[in-house]
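Subject: sequence -> structure tokens, single chain

Hey, anyone have a minute? Need the predicted structure for the following. Not urgent.
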Amino acid sequence: MGKIYTALGLMSGTSMDGVDASIINSDGNRDYSIKLNKYFEYGDELRQKLINIRSKIFMIDHLKAYFNEIKDLEREITLFHANSVNEILDTSKIEVDLLGFHGHTIFHDSKKKITKQLGDGKLLSQLTKKMVVYDFRQNDLKNGGQGAPLTPIFHNAMANKFLKKELSESCSVNILNIGGISNITQTVKWDELSIPYQTIKACDIAPGNCLIDEWVRKNSKNKYDNDGELASIGKTDDLILNQALENFNIDSHYEESLDINDFDISFAKGLSLENGASTLTDFTATQITKALVYFRGSSKNTIWLVCGGGRKNKYLMKSIASQVVEDLNKIVLLPVEKYGIDGDFVESQAFAYLAIRSFLNLPISFPNTTRCKGPTTGGTLVKNF
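Reply:
Had a minute. Here:
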């Protein structure tokens, strides 16, 4: 075990509801422990600004067209993060070496190697008096990668920490993260994580919450479909669903990083709030299920740990489970909470962990995760105080 560092990770996801913050201790490799998790909710005004700017950015030119608005919102987002960090540091009295600052993604195009996260690392460092690691994706893009997903190396550490027995019994332990976009990590025993990390595999697979959330926001006063209640009382339009599935063949996209702009809700236009929620949720579930079957592997048992906000959508999880019923001997879907993991804070813990790896100049992305040319470190370290 190497030197142990303490890092605070910050994650603002596509749900645009707030900031998840986590403090961990880690050597940047297989060992880590969790010290604190805390959530900070955005106010209605800030949340609406994020929704508005996200709805305007569909191509690179839009980043220039809305430059001033983006710059002002970036400052506001950074101030919110800084206030959250300072509150944690003041109340917890935990000494933190580094901040892992993901920022808030407003645009991601893996093909054109362009990604934009709102977040001023220099300002955050100045306001918190801490070293900050931010801009995690750029170096991966420069090295031929797609900039995402970045959490697989942490998923692997998590599986080795909490499911060591299962891995030793030759079970496949895979992570299904259902956030705005869904992604899969196929984990391995840490001792088999060979240099140059060719054994760990991951990819984006499908929409997660993004279509459902957008539908609910645009057709009601709600922020999301709580527990999948709207979908559960609606009726899926099978004709529309099947046409949408035919038009978007997700299988061909498993090698590409996805963005919420890769999907849209237009095919549900004209449906009622409940029927649209049901149809979009079943569309999402079908795409996720296809990936589960595709990536289940050849081992006797594949345990799927589900994290991300989508795991709380009961209708979505029921729809996925009903579609994999014939493969239950190989696919077991379990919430990460079954193994003592808090599924709400996996990504904020991940960016604390990635900050430590970045500080130690260890790779955070790999050929079989982001499709980069070789194991690549990432993140910009700044000390501005």
